[in-house]
Known about the structure:
It is a single chain. By secondary structure, the protein is of the alpha+beta class. It has helices at residues 54-60, 111-118, 139-145, 156-160, 167-174, 179-185, and strands at residues 12-16, 29-36, 39-44, 48-53, 73-76, 80-89, 99-102, 105-108, 126-135, 149-153. Strands 1, 2, 3, 4, 5, 6, 7, 8, 9 and 10 form a ten-stranded mixed beta sheet that branches. The chain is globular and about 45 Å long.
Amino acid sequence: MENSSAVSFKGQFLMAMPLLLDQNFYQTVTCICEYTPAGAVGLVINRVHPSLSAKDIFNELEIESNFGAESIPIHIGGPVHMGEIFVLHSPPFGWEGCFMITPALAMSNTRDVLEAIAMGRGPKSFLVALGCAGWGPGQLESEIKENAWLTSPVFEEIIFDLPIETRWEEAMRKVGVDPAMLLATSGHA
């Protein structure tokens, strides 16, 4: 009998395969932040809100900012909890709601981390997202078996250092997959 609890997707990337046509996830890279028997939670790292910036978020929350908040993009973390803010970040990790994903990566969603970012005293590297992605018990495993997703370890440089539009292709390349070949062959028997 297979022990499904031996596998954990926490700290993994999910790269959407080309046949995954759901508009929320087409060609996305999702960082899995939590994985338990009750399901999984992740943040899409390569979708940006077309009109919001951190300045809008700070204004809404009445958080004072003293530097270029208008240049901080707001990511669309997924279609679940769209009104909630999540911050994927590098050290430091001492924030009130800090939840470790890997030894070098955490997720926080408390006001203290947002206030620090607004004043330029936040984590060195961060991604601010509205919403998250969620899977119920067994749902993610089922989708992976159906070849909707490729998995790999999280690569922080893809999250924080690469242009948003290149993240899916680079995540695929990191695991030895040529995205051009996948796209050229998808849909053919």
